Amino acid sequence: AKKSKDNPYHDYYVWRDGEEDVYPNDMNSVFGGPAWEWVPELGQYYFHQFSVKQPDLNWENPKVRRELYDMILWWMEKGAGGFRLDVIDQIAKEPDLKITNNGPKLHEFLRELSRETFQKGDMIIVGEAWGATPEIAKKYSNPDGSEFSMVFQFEHIMLDQEEGKEKWDTIPLNMVKLKKCLAKWQNTLYQTGWNSLFMNNHDLPRIVSRWGNDGKYRKESAKMLATMLHGMQG
User: Which residues form the Glycosyl hydrolase family 13 catalytic domain (predicted)?
Assistant: First the structure.
């Protein structure tokens, strides 16, 4: 894709013309630094929301979507029973407008993805969506199965993050806010969607260390948090 603008894989990614050190805009990567990487041979920047080694795919290109569908179908034929779709709410990005999450064509792309792949089998599909709200989550995990089986959202996990600061700049957890947040998601998705219940994953520290006590009261903390988690619908 970097060899030439005429390379058949060039349009598999998101490119913008420009000048060195004059970025298309001021968007930053999640991993730090500009979200644009200069390629002097082409006089262009490519867009990467995460690592510079992870250029974003151009979902506007039907060839990209077709290749992705074929890969998924290959795994389904091998017997895969489900897929976890990482940061899937960012596939319909519009970097010129600084839109990353929940782009205008997001649900159009997701429904096509489901029709072309997941609906051809009995699959469990989990979508990770950092930018989801309860109303958006109802579209993701609606009972007709046109998008996901269930959705990961992170609103409750972000309650101890200091607003405007980095990921690990935390503040004490407000228990009332936690209760209201969990209740909101439970009530909004009741009988219309499927919460994916969790408190930590591979990107986050263990919840006993984060919200509990991993020393003297390790067991009690773990039981308390597990009771809260498994007492909810999802």
Answer: 1-234
